[in-house]
Design brief:
single chain; alpha+beta; four-stranded mixed β-sheet; elongated
C-alpha cells in the first residue's frame, strides 16, 4: 500500500525484488509536494525504515516485504529549492567555520 503524498495513494500487488520507489511509481509517482526520497517503509512486523539518499545521488532503499505500507511525506509549507539550497549552504559554512576554529586551536596549543 502507498499512502501519503503519492499521486494516487493506493493498494498494489506485492512482487519480490521491487523497491519502495518502484511501488511509488506504480501508484502514479508523487504529488507535486511529495518527497519519495524520504519515504518510510513500514513492514507488517512493525519495523519502519526510511529511504535514504546518499550524497544527493544514490538511494539506499530498505526491503519491502509483502504487506508493507509505504508512506510518502510531503514537503513542509514554504519549502522551495532556493530555501533548501540556502539552508545547505548555511550548514556547510557552519561546519567549515567549526573545523577552521579547531585547526587554529590545535596549532595554538602545539606552540
Amino acid at each position: 500500500r502507498v499512502d501519503g503524498a503519492g499521486a494516487l495513494p493506493s493498494l498494489g500487488r506485492w512482487e519480490p525484488g521491487r523497491s519502495a520507489t518502484d511501488y511509488i511509481e506504480l501508484a502514479g509517482g508523487t504529488s507535486p509536494r511529495g518527497m519519495a526520497h524520504r519515504a518510510v517503509v513500514s513492514a507488517p512486523s512493525g519495523i519502519s525504515r526510511r529511504v535514504k539518499r546518499v550524497l544527493w545521488v544514490a538511494k539506499l532503499e530498505p526491503p519491502v516485504p509483502s504487506g508493507s505500507t509505504i508512506v510518502v511525506p510531503e514537503k513542509p509549507e514554504g519549502t522551495t529549492i532556493i530555501s533548501s539550497a540556502i539552508s545547505a549552504m548555511a550548514t556547510t559554512v557552519q561546519v567549515s567555520t567549526t573545523l577552521l576554529t579547531m585547526i587554529v586551536a590545535i596549532r595554538a596549543l602545539r606552540q
